[in-house]
Design brief:
The protein has 229 residues and is mainly alpha-helical. 76% of the residues lie in helices and 0% in strands.
Length: 229
């Protein structure tokens, strides 16, 4: 799955969605009163990762690792330690595990698409228990570090973990969890932008993430039906 050009798998709508995402993110950066190049780079990599994740293409996970590292640096700069710890300690490692899992479960011979799976009851129970413990533990860690917007940052931990868990196990519900996380992150970065307009590209980034995750959910539903057929 890695030994191919991932852009060749995109259809016309996906090309349009990706190019529009790049244009909107870049435009918000160019029109801003001040610019943080790292925010722009991270945003462009992020929306590119999502279009491939929506395709069930393993390159999406590879780019997610890169995005996670850059996003952690940006979060550290604004003292969003929850986001930094989440992406360094959870999102990036799970994305690495997802690369391995997706490579081991292609949808079929020669297809650059992961096989969609369905969570069994035991994995759902484990997911819920882990989410509670991870969220509870991180709340006190974030509080110790005097994290900005503590409650919202804690909610972001929960939605991020759910999304990463569902992604690892190739569930179509991953996109809904990420969409919920997008809404939380839009809120966080709007608050950051009020204090410093340099972070506006991050707001636009997660708005475009939301559109891409909605498409990802719809496309994974189609993938599941096609693979079952």
């Amino acid at each position: 799955m890695l030994l191919h050009n991932p852009f060749r798998t995109l259809n016309k709508f996906e090309w349009l969605l990706w190019l529009c995402s790049l244009a909107v993110v870049t435009g918000s950066f160019m029109l801003g009163s001040a610019g943080n190049p790292l925010s722009l780079i991270a945003s462009l990599i992020g929306v590119t990762a999502l279009i491939f994740v929506a395709k069930g293409n393993v390159w999406g996970q590879v780019l997610t690792v890169v995005f996670s590292l850059l996003y952690a640096v940006i979060s550290w700069q604004f003292k969003y330690y929850g986001e930094m710890i989440t992406y360094l300690g959870m999102t990036a490692p799970i994305a690495v595990m997802s690369v391995i899992a997706w490579l081991r479960h292609p949808s079929g011979s020669g297809k650059a698409e992961v096989k969609v799976a369905r969570l069994n009851k035991s994995r759902v129970v484990v997911m819920l228990i882990l989410t509670i413990f991870v969220t509870w533990g991180f709340y006190f860690i974030l509080k110790y570090f005097d994290t900005a917007n503590l409650i919202i940052s804690t909610i972001s931990i929960a939605t991020s973990f759910l999304a990463a868990y569902l992604m690892l196990f190739r569930s179509t519900l991953y996109a809904l969890a990420y969409a919920a996380n997008d809404v939380v992150l839009i809120t966080l970065w709007v608050l950051a932008t009020i204090e410093n307009p340099v972070y506006m590209p991050m707001v636009i980034c997660f708005v475009m993430f939301l559109f891409n995750d909605i498409y990802g959910f719809l496309n994974w539903q189609r993938m599941r039906q096609k693979q079952r057929g």
